[in-house]
Design goal:
The protein is 30% helix and 19% strand. The protein is α/β, with parallel strands linked by helices and 309 residues long. The protein folds into two domains: 59-158 and 253-293, D-Maltodextrin-Binding Protein, domain 2 (3-Layer(aba) Sandwich), CATH 3.40.190.10; 160-245, 3-Layer(aba) Sandwich (D-Maltodextrin-Binding Protein, domain 2). Strand 9 (181-185), helix 6 (189-197) and strand 10 form a beta-alpha-beta unit. Helix 3 crosses helix 9. The longest helix is centred in the last third of the chain and has 16 residues, at 263-278. The chain binds glutamic acid (GLU). Belongs to the bacterial solute-binding protein 3 family. Residues 69-293 form the Solute-binding protein family 3/N-terminal domain. Pfam families: SBP_bac_3.
Length: 309
């Protein structure tokens, strides 16, 4: 028997929903709905910090070494991928674990990383300006971006998908978006694809996907589009309000962004990704983060050590 669901309140935000979910986490889970839980520190792998590691050909590495720690760009509002706890300031998620593994391989204690939140539209500038040493945040590798930055990886393959309200019946794929308001992040590949391939959709852009989700909950837009990894996180945290619709309709290989000219850093990170996939860290990190949304760990894609140029 379907349960009657409370109607959405126009003022309801994702933050309010998550606060409610946190209150409920101890005792009010319902049968059939995924548990609301985040990465637990005890379940996360501990990465062995490389001793005596040196990368003299990398200007980025040398600068970090003299600074004493790494500065890494990330997302802060993508559950299970890159999320910042507003109370403690701590970052967690699969991308954050990838950033930590990389730090350990470069000879830095992952605990000393300074994370900086950088929105999708600002990633290339942050890397070009030296604001961050590298970036790990659902960052799709593509030819256009490779003209501006370098990419180690890929370390995961996502796919563009759609998030809708639980009671939505009319949207089951991008072909159903004509005349619908579809929200995505400025500077993202999903926004570009909707504008290019589905021009009848009414695309709406904000800085972050969490603003899009707030707009979906308050009935301002009809769908949110971005990678399934990100949308699964929102859906798993608000299972009574949100669901994914249809199947992924793109391939988004995730890379670690580095300054474009720093080939030494890029190749060192390629080696590090492959090493952490081989020694089991990658899978342990996945299981403790993105795996909580219910999808078992896939086989990671092969890293692409493309030539400098
Ligand atoms: N992977 C896509 C991109 O890099 C969407 C996710 C994001 O905006 O970070 O544009």
């Amino acid at each position: 028997m379907p349960r009657p669901r409370p109607r959405l309140l126009p003022g309801l935000t994702l933050a309010a929903l998550l606060a409610l979910a946190a209150l409920c986490a101890a005792g009010c889970g319902k049968e059939g709905s995924p548990p609301v839980k985040g990465p637990k520190p005890g379940q996360l792998p501990v990465y062995t910090v490389a001793t005596g590691f040196s990368l003299p050909d990398s200007a980025t590495w040398r600068r970090a070494r003299s600074r004493g720690h790494l500065v890494v760009g990330a997302k802060e509002d993508q559950p299970y991928m890159g999320e910042k706890d507003p109370a403690t300031g701590a970052y967690s998620g699969f991308d954050i674990e990838i950033a930590r593994m990389m730090a350990a391989s470069l000879g830095f204690d992952p605990k000393t990383i300074t994370f900086r939140t950088i929105a999708s539209a600002n990633r290339e500038t942050a890397l070009q300006n030296g604001q961050i040493d590298y970036y790990v945040g659902t960052y799709t590798i593509n030819a256009l971006r490779k003209k501006q930055v370098g990419f180690a990886g890929p370390y995961y393959t996502a796919g563009q998908s759609l998030l809708v309200r639980k009671d939505e019946k009319g949207i089951d794929g991008p072909g159903d978006l004509a005349g619908k308001r579809v929200c995505s992040a400025a500077g993202s590949t999903p926004l570009q694809r909707i504008e290019r391939d589905y021009p009848k959709a009414r695309a709406v852009a904000y800085d972050t996907y969490s603003i899009c989700v707030d707009n979906l909950l308050s009935l301002q837009v009809d769908a949110v589009t971005t990678d399934d990894t990100i949308l699964m996180g929102y859906a798993a945290k608000a299972p009574d309000e949100l669901k994914l619709a249809g199947r992924p309709f793109s391939t988004e290989p995730y890379g670690i962004g580095v300054p474009r000219g720093d080939t030494a850093l890029r190749l060192a990170l390629d080696d590090a990704i492959a090493a952490h996939e081989r020694n089991g860290d990658w899978k342990k990190a996945y299981d403790a983060t993105l795996g909580l949304s219910g999808v078992p760990a896939p086989q990671p894609p092969a890293v692409d050590r493309y030539p400098a140029g």
